[in-house]
Amino acid sequence: MSLRFRTLRTARRSALAAAALALSVALAPAVSAAPAAAAAPQAAEAGSGGTIPLGAGYMGVGYTGDGATFSSDTRQLRLDAEGAAAPLATQLPGIDVSHYQGSINWASVKSAGIKFAYIKATESTTYTDPQFSTNYTNAHTRKVIRGAYHFARPNLSGGAAQANYFVAHGGAWSKDNLTLPGMLDLEAGCYGLSTSAMRTWITDFYNTYKAKTTRDVVIYTSPSWWNTCTGNWGGMSAKSPLFVAHWTTAASPSIPAGFPYWTFWQYSSTGSVSGISGAVDRDRFSGTEARLLALANNTP
Q: Which of 106, 160, 232, 239 has the greatest CB tally within 10 Å of its CB?
C-alpha cells in the first residue's frame, strides 16, 4: 500500500470518527475511527452496500454507517452468565486483515502474542483479495491460527453462489491445528433486500458452506446491521459462532438480538501490532487457547 493511500486512508478515518461523534452513535460510545477503503463512500449512503466498490469491502467498512443509520441494540453481555465470554484476562488477542494492511511480517505478529487472525479472501463471485494467498500461507507458516472470510454482496448474486466461490478461493477448511472455519462478513446496509430475503440469502450461504466443508460458518456483524437487516433473527444462533463488531473500551460488547453470546469480538479498528504498518483491527476470542484449537479442529 502506497504512502499516498495510507495518508488518504488516515484522513478518511479521522473524518469518519468526527461524523460518528456528531451523530452520537449508541452502539459505540468509545469507538475509534473506522478505516476507509479507497474510493469507498460508505458514509454517504449507509443503507446500501452497493456504494462500496467491488473489492473495497473489509471487516468494519460499514460499521460507522450502519450504527448511524440503523437502530442499535445496546444490550450488554453478562460476563457471569452461563455460556458467556470469559473475563478479559482470559480472552485471546487476535487481528483481522486484508490487502489494506499491505505486506505483513507474520513472524513479528506471532512474536507480538497474536493468537489468531481472520484474513480477507473473497467478495461476490469474481473478486479475490490480492494479499490473501500470501497472508494465509505466511500466517500458517508462523503457526498463527487463521481463518478466511468472505465479504457478502447480497445484491450481486445468491448466497449459495457466493459460498461456492468462497470455498473454491480460500475458504475451505482442513483439520490441521491452524485453520478456523470460514467467516461471512455481513455489514454496510441491507443491499435492498427485505428481512425475509436476507434470511434466505444467509441460509443459502450457510447451507452451501456447510455441505462443502462440514463446518458451520462464523458470522461477523454488528447489532445494528443484524437487528435491522434480519429483523432480530435468531435462526443462526444455534449454528454459527458470532463474531460481533462493537468498537468500545467496555469490558463486554453489545450483541445482536437472536444471539445469546459472542465467540469473537472486534473491539477496535485502530490497533497497533508489531509486523503491521499502520492501523489494524483488534479482536478477542472468548475462551482459552484450548477452546480456540477445539473450534479450529471441530473437536469438543
A: 106
| pLDDT tens sequence across 261-271 | 999 999 999 99
Catalytic residue (one of 73, 96, 123, 281): 96
β-strand pairing of 280-285 with 127-128:
unpaired
Q: How many residues in the chain? A: 300
Considering the candidates 66, 73, 123, 185, report the single residue annotated as catalytic. Answer: 185
The residue annotated as part of the active site, out of 66, 123, 129, 187, is: 187
Query: How confident is residue 69, by pLDDT bands cut at 50, 70 and 90?
Result: confident
What is the signed CA dihedral for 235, 225, 251, 88, rounded to 10 degrees? 60
- The residues facing 76 across adjacent strands are 254
Q: Which three cell numbers stand for residue 21?
A: 461523534
* 281 has catalytic annotation: no
Q: What angle do CA 172, 246, 237 make, to 5 degrees?
A: 55
Active site residue 123: no
